[in-house]
Amino acid sequence: MTFRLLGLDHVAVAVRDLDEAMRPWLALGLRRGDREVVAEQGVEVQMLHAGDVRIELVAPLGPDTPVGRYLEKHGPGIHHLALAVDDCAEAVAAAEAAGLRMVDRAPRAGAHGTRIAFVHPAATGGVLTELVAPGDAPRGGGEAS
């Protein structure tokens, strides 16, 4: 059971409206990346790029979704950190073997062809952490703003 940690994949920010939330980031020089609906998770995501760093804006498709409930309870702000791993299933197995509480016991489909699983915030000092096996999203891409 081995996997490699590849680095920070992205920081996700929960927002109510993607277009409105994107404006200040574009004004700060970030580049617009891909937008995608991930119906299985009840969200629409907008990727933004600052060099090799990515910020993912996450808006709920409705109030009775995980991100919709998060926004109702906490308001807009940082939702989770995502760590890039080369094998999501192996990363989940290693986390469970280390006794970490998981939200997902097996990888599931994420945006841009990724495989993802979440580590429960109780296991990481209150920070919801996503494990991401990279898919087809460009790392440093994005349109000029």
What does this structure look like?
- By secondary structure, the protein is an alpha+beta fold.
- The chain has a single domain (5-133), classed as Roll (2,3-Dihydroxybiphenyl 1,2-Dioxygenase, domain 1), CATH 3.10.180.10.
- The protein is built from three helices and eight strands.
- An eight-stranded mixed β-sheet has the order 2-3-4-1-5-8-7-6.
- The longest helix is centred in the N-terminal third of the chain and has 10 residues, at 18-27.
- The protein is globular.
Mean pLDDT: 93
What ranges have pLDDT less than 50 throughout 5 or more consecutive residues? none
Helix-strand makeup class? alpha+beta
Distance between the termini: 42 Å
CATH class: Alpha Beta
Main sheet summary = 8 strands, mixed
SSE run: EHEEEHEHEEE
Instruction: Identify the overall geometry.
Output: globular
**Helix fraction bin:** 10-25%
In angstroms, what is the radius of gyration? 15 Å
Give a concise summary:
The chain has about 140 residues and is of the alpha+beta class.
Note the main attributes of this structure.
alpha+beta, globular, 2,3-Dihydroxybiphenyl 1,2-Dioxygenase, domain 1, eight-stranded mixed sheet, 145 residues, 3 helices, single chain
Topology:
Elements: E1 5-14, H1 18-27, E2 31-38, E3 43-50, E4 53-60, H2 66-74, E5 77-85, H3 88-97, E6 108-109, E7 115-119, E8 129-133
Parallel strand pairs: 1-4, 5-8
Antiparallel strand pairs: 1-5, 2-3, 3-4, 6-7, 7-8
